[in-house]
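User: Could you check the structure of this?
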Amino acid sequence: MIGLEQRHPLNPRDHRLFVREFIGVIYLITGKAYSPAIYRRLLSAYAPDRKPSTATLAIEKERFVKQLDRRAAAADPQAGNQVEGNAELDDIRQMLEDLMARPTLRGAGPPDSYLQAQCDFLQQRLSQSEKQIADAKAATSALDTQRQVLEAQLREARSQVETLQSSGTTMQDQLAMLTRAIDEARQFALLAIDESRGETRAWRERCNASEAQLKAQVSITETFRRLAYRQGADIPPSLQAKPT
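Assistant: Sure, the predicted structure tokens are below.
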């Protein structure tokens, strides 16, 4: 606490820098941020000469909480640029508030041209930063819209791919069934051809046997006919030789 008092001498009109560092010290010790009423009690116990207003305690506490939030959000790569821009904007605003809190800029002392120029520069920088952040937010919004459109297109494309995959699976099943049916028909046709060839071969053999039997019977008949003719049997008119 002594080092804190030395870095920020007592100024009854401005306790902001002391309160800012005091809140940070309390957070380092306890790991928590408290309400302005708690900070006032702690100041009464450890720095009774410091009597900041409740508004100052609330502003500095809110500023410190925002710093903690920025540190936590800095780990998010998507929000990194926006967090960095907001942090720069908050720092510029705080520097302006610190400058405006000095007596020379509040009319409590002689004018300081350097401080006034620095204040003007920071105000210009603040306006530029606000414009850049607004542009960044607009670009982020446009990118988010494009992302949503691309995600919708991706979902539609995935749906189409799934439909095509389902149709392809159905066609593959049908093709497999058709292939099995063709194989079964081919097997049946081959069996039928084999059976037909077997029957044809059997009938050919039967015909050959019948022809051989017929020839034998014709030969035997001819032999007996000639014997009958020799024994004096009448020759049928149809077999008699006709005169030429």
